[in-house]
Automatic annotation (TrEMBL):
Residues 501-520 have a biased composition (Basic and acidic residues). GO terms for cellular component: mRNA cleavage and polyadenylation specificity factor complex. SMART domains: Beta-Casp, CPSF73-100_C, Lactamase_B. Residues 25-241 form the Metallo-beta-lactamase domain. Residues 501-521 are annotated as: Disordered. It comes from Lachancea thermotolerans (strain ATCC 56472 / CBS 6340 / NRRL Y-8284). Pfam families: Beta-Casp, CPSF73-100_C, Lactamase_B, RMMBL. Signal peptide: none annotated. Belongs to the metallo-beta-lactamase superfamily. RNA-metabolizing metallo-beta-lactamase-like family. CPSF2/YSH1 subfamily. This is Endoribonuclease YSH1. InterPro entries: Beta_Casp (IPR022712), CPSF73-100_C (IPR021718), MBL (IPR050698), Metallo-B-lactamas (IPR001279), RibonucZ/Hydroxyglut_hydro (IPR036866), RMMBL (IPR011108). One of its GO terms (biological process) is mRNA processing. GO terms for molecular function: 5'-3' RNA exonuclease activity; RNA binding; RNA endonuclease activity. PANTHER family: CLEAVAGE AND POLYADENYLATION SPECIFICITY FACTOR FAMILY MEMBER (PTHR11203), CLEAVAGE AND POLYADENYLATION SPECIFICITY FACTOR SUBUNIT 3 (PTHR11203:SF11).
Amino acid sequence: MTNDRGQLSKTSLRFYSLGGGNEVGRSCHILQYKGKTVMLDAGVHPAHQGLASLPFYDEFDLSTVDVLLISHFHLDHAASLPYVMQRTNFRGRVFMTHPTKAIYRWLLSDFVKVTSIGSTSFSDKDENLYTDEDLAESFDRIETIDFHSTIDVNGIKFVAFHAGHVLGAAMFQVEIAGLKILFTGDYSRETDRHLNSAEVPPSSSDVLIVESTFGTATHEPRINREKKLTQLIHSTVMRGGRVLLPVFALGRAQEIMLILDEYWSQHADELGNGQVPVFYASNLAKKCMSVFQTYVNMMNDDIRKKFRDSQSNPFIFKNISYLKNLDEFQDFGPSVMLASPGMLQNGLSRDLLEKWCPGEKNLVLITGYSVEGTMAKFIMLEPDTIPSINNPEINIPRRCQIEEISFAAHVDFRENLEFIEKVGARNIILVHGESNPMGRLKSALLSNFSALKNTEDEVRVFNPRNCISVDLEFKGVKVAKAIGNIVDEVSSTLHGLKELESRSDVKPQKEHGEGDGEPKDVEDETIVAGILVSDEKNFDLNLVSLSDLRDYHMDLSTTVLRERQTVSIDCKKELLYWHLCQMFGDMEVLIDDAGITHKGESKPNGSDELELKIMGDVKLNVIKNVATLEWSQGIINDTVADSIMAILLSVDSSPSSVKMSSRSCEHDHSHEQDQHNDLWKIKQIARLCTEQFGDCFSYKLDESGQDIKGSITMGKNTAVINLTQLKVEECNSNPLKGRIESILSIGSDLVAPLC
Ligand SMILES: [Zn+2]
Ligand SMILES: [Zn+2]
């Protein structure tokens, strides 16, 4: 057994189940990545009681959990939440959807009652996990999340998607530092009588944590199951029998009621016009029904249409009566009873089972998923006797008929596989399944994806036991989000690109990232320049333009770096000035004590200082034989400074220096000199291009006197540049062309003032 004491590398995602690993029940999973901890679900195990029903909370330091997400209100996903919030050192924030929170409240207050009744029978008060007060105190601290809206808690982002299954059930897509993990919770991909099927989140996920309840089993078509259900019930009541349908108070109970209510209306004559009653027995029936009535708008079109058209609520049934307890129930003849809890552990459904199971005309019809170790699972073995819950000494004979028709809203193999393929995650973690079906599902998935084995897209499938961690390594996933002005720049560039190429598949990409080294279609990429700001705490990586920096990152400012270099020179200032004129043409004269430039006033004062401003921002100061260059860092200034430095260092040894020393720049230039200048210009431009494009840029100096051309190849984008005429001659990408043109214009500014 491993736990959080093991070292977790910076790039690995750790997953482990505190419950729900190789079992159905006490769902609870932990995700750790980049120092963040997310907990998924906090359920109880329906086959156990008291502390034994909890996930293995002692195996994990709950104080480290940042966020706890509850997928839906079922007890195996939510019922230990008050325990976590009130009885442990958990300090994180808790989220669930609105309907889940509304129903959770009623369900858990009932759960407290039922379990405290259960525990008094064991005369052990400590077995109470929590009290009504715990429930009430923790309830207000539960935050709600709307479907499809993103919440960000200190860098942990998550979105809820519809999961089908039961009202309010959510899948969560969690994103930490660009890594996306999808947790399905319990989900169904079938549109039933009141709910839509689960959604596939629009953006891909790196890791999928998926339920495996039905393993590789296939559901019979729904229409057949409905027919079987109504026929079985019909024939049982016709022979004078009673039908017991153990149901979970909420969710599937309402689904079965929708089926039965419709059937009873359609077959009123045969069923003796109300002579065969249908009951729904649950302490919560009425309260929960009002929640269902409230959330009709979250259900499917069919239900919403019924609600709109008939002006009556589809959850107000004509043929079904509510029973709060069995005292008011007069058991005189055939009847149909939906009763909770669904797994016959205790309560109303258990009382009715013990009462009716000796009668051979009667029928117990299991419609939900039955967890190992519960009475519902046991009764399906058709035992001769069952133990009485209130008097364990007594065995009750079982003669009634037992049938199972599943209306459990979980995906079957075909639906699960289809969903898994659509999500496209390369790492799949199976949860919420008994060992055998889960193992079979793992084998089936591996064989389904076997063609990808040993490729980059290999799909890995895990079925970890509780408290056994799965560590997944990820290369740093970096996604930078462009914000502010840059977004407009990108979209206008892309707009232009779209018009030019009239292609429909070039999408504006506001997010640029390097995934798992996936080669990207170069044509779909747009080159964006800006400042990359990384927020280590929230894992935000933002690309902003310089002008926006202060708006988006108050704590950051821009700094201008001044550079200064001093060299000693061994030549006359006149000679130096002449060389500088050759290269830069007119220069601003700041100080000229000796009157070398014939521009400044000659002020012989012995100091003999010369100071020039070259190309706008580079200052050269010469006193005696010490030359000092000063400039603000930047691509143009650096280039200019480099060139000046080259002159400073070479001027004394250059053979032309002596020859030219008597000439000044006002003299006419020889043809040879012009050619020399042209070549120098081209070299400077080429140098700028190399700085910008690196190895992607190449050019060849041609002695033939023709125009000198350079070329750029970046993936599928290519360009030919005429370096002599400073023109882009060919280019198949507009953004690239724009970028080259701006470099050429910088470059021409740089070399233009040559005299
Ligand atoms: Zn469920
Ligand atoms: Zn479940």
